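User: Here's a chain of 349 residues. Predict its fold as tokens.
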Amino acid sequence: MALVMSSSTPLILLNEDLVVQAASGSFCRAFSVNPDSVVGAELFALGDGEWDIPQLRSLLSATASGSAAIDAYEMDLKRAGDPVRCLVLNAHVLDHHPDDALRLVVAVTDVTEVRQAARDKDTLERENDVLLQELNHRVANSLQIIASVLMQRVRRVQSEETRGHLRDAHHRVMAVATLQRQLAANTSSQVALRPYFTELCASIGASMILDPELVTLTVEADDSVTTADRSVSLGLIVTELVINALKHAFPGDGAKGSITVGFHTTGARWSLIVADNGIGLPGDHATAKPGLGTGIVNALAAQLSATVVLTAGKPGTIVSIVSDRQAVRPDGQGMVSAATSSEEIATTT
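Assistant: Prediction complete.
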């Protein structure tokens, strides 16, 4: 009894009839119980009867009979004129000699503020998600406007070289705009790469492939997902490589061919491949001065800790962006080794 009464944690000691034998001062203060009248009173008669809750009565009766024990039972304590309080109760029968009277100790923890903080956090996260979706939507619209302005400039300028630069800029903007549309439609910060690449390639093909019967552009990707910032880099790489293939792989009117964009993960290794069956690499490609697109691809690959590998196809050209340093999630459950969270590329199956 002395331990119960001196406890800083709200405690009450009950007999087998659930009558209070002792109560800590902390319990009396926390729940506005008169310490002079608490001993000898039934628990359910304390205060204004706010403890008289059928489920609590049933659980304590079962605990007192030895058929149960209360571990972290959560309840709302409602008292007229006071705000509702969220409590967590633990109740156990004390060890005793068969000839001694049964004693049941009940510990009470007030978690009202903790639960309210959790609710406030959830509300804030939902509000932030709504704001983020709205931001992504607005950014996507703004990028679409910029892309439209660039295309208007293409039609106005006289220089073919300038037109080419403007078209390339248009496609780069559209790569980011496509990602923003995906983010605006998705409540997660993760980007599924297969639909992203599919939509991106459809956008590029619609503006650059005059006859889909002659040149096809397809995507073959697994179920990999990655963070938004890394998907921007991957999307820009795809944009540069696809544009380059469309420009140079199939020269001349009526040339037929296909371009394939692939993305796959195996263990801790991922690879992005853009392959065409066009005329292949020029003879002087090893000594030729790199263009803007090549510089962009190399820079983005470096950001991804990846390596650019250029090989000749039979026929055509294959460009591979390969990394074995990124963390992957092969089963959709956990991450395995390798990189910081900001560098994650994951696979779900």
